[in-house]
Amino acid sequence: MLVLLGIVLFIVGLLASIALHEVGHMVPAKKFGVRVSEYFVGFGPTLWSRQGKETEYGIKAIPLGGYVKLVGMMPPEEAVKPVRGHGRIARLIADTRAAAVEEIREGEDHRAFYHLTWWRKVIVMFGGPVVNLIIAVVLFTIVGMGVGSFEPTTTVGAVAKCVPSQVTAECTAADPASPASQAGLQEGDVFVSVDGTPVASWEETTAVIAANPDATVPVVVARDGENVELTVTLASATRDGKEVGYLGVIPTSELVTQGPLSGVTRTAELTGAVASVIATLPQHVYHAALAAVGVEERSADSVIGIVGVGRISGEIVASDIEGYDAKLKTADMLNLLAGLNLALFAFNMIPLVPLDGGHIASALWQGIKNGWARVRRLPKPSPVDVARMMPLAYGVFGLLILMGVVLIVADIVAPVSVS
């Protein structure tokens, strides 16, 4: 039951994010005079709808997206250069253009989207992704200020028994004892100073340790209310191609609340990572497909789809781990939803139609054309013909569906778990 509750909460959060994304498109479009004929959350059969003054609002059965229909997205044939050829692609372009022109009511051609200046088009198309970005910042800020994040302390949580041959390896009889265990460091000790340098944070502690590979240094720790002086001969380890000191302790961690800019900082930190995943998405989907057919195991850092995220939401709510209370579960759910919105922002900014980034790119190209014409004192150029991009749009859309299906199957037969 708790797993189902987690999945339901995720779906509600996803639908809210989608709905607000579409509002980000709709509001500036209406502000600039464009007629918005439809606003729907979801795809497929309509579950509910209501006709407004000029916009039909509704919910569809498949909660995997949403859309707003902006009238006149594509310029009519007489406003652009003719399309050469009479093959299937030419017919597709002509049919798509005709359908867009049919949506324009008599006497309302001036309200068509294609008439907007290039910068207004950018605002309309960027409105959706930027809403997702704002949602991510707000949710990360709520978690940072209200709950905080786990940060290491100067208190020893565990002492390593050895200096392992590899970072992830377990201790063997051939591995030397760790400097911490040889010096007599104990769980609960609190670092006061290392090599004569007072330390107040784990970062300061590790900085001094790292700077002294193979050195013998004095260490002062607080133990049972008294300061205890120890002598530690540090080992050497390789980190990022550099020799650094190794002690062999694991610190405890505690929740530390963050400041009001924590959401901005967190979003900025993760944006690059999300963009990197998107840039290599075909590779990630390929490995997910191999995992789905049993050729290889699904890695813990594998990209996941909508089913995988829903599954993780259920695991978060249903988990029964000591100390993992409702407050921490709520924080993880909010972080998950924030990460999803950040992914929606980054994904929609890919400069390919039918994604928002593709329409933004075409609007920017229009601005470049207009500016070049002004410099050369030429007549204003014709609108960028978005209809010509429809064959590419259908190809991209088909590829996205294929990748989505692969991830759904992989999430079912070879799931990634947070447990």
Structure report:
The chain has helices at 2-31, 88-102, 118-146, 179-183, 202-210, 262-279, 281-292, 306-318, 326-348, 356-375, 390-413; strands spanning 36-51, 56-70, 149-159, 190-194, 197-198, 216-223, 226-233, 235-239, 242-246, 249-256. The protein has a domain at 151-256: Roll (Pdz3 Domain), CATH 2.30.42.10. It has 419 residues and is an alpha+beta fold. The protein has eleven helices and ten strands. Helix 1 (2-31) runs antiparallel to helix 3, helix 3 crosses helix 6 and helix 8 (306-318) runs parallel beside helix 11. The longest helix has 30 residues, at 2-31. Strand 8 and strand 9 form a beta hairpin.
What string, H for helix and E for strand, traces the elements in order? HEEHHEHEEHEEEEEHHHHHH
Q: Name the CATH superfamily assignment of the domain at 151-256.
A: PDZ domain
| CATH third-tier fold name of the domain at 151-256 | Pdz3 Domain
The oligomeric state is: single chain
Strand order of the largest sheet: 5-4-6-7
Weakly predicted, low-confidence segments: none
Average pLDDT reading: 90
How many beta-strand runs? 10
* C-alpha geometry: elongated
Query: What is the correct CATH architecture of the domain at 151-256?
Result: Roll
Q: Number of helical runs? A: 11
Distance between the termini: 17 Å
Largest sheet: 4 strands, antiparallel
What's the level 1 CATH class of the domain at 151-256? Mainly Beta
Helix share bin = 40-55%
Instruction: State Rg.
Output: 28 Å
Which structural category fits the helices and strands?
A: alpha+beta
Strand content: 15-25%
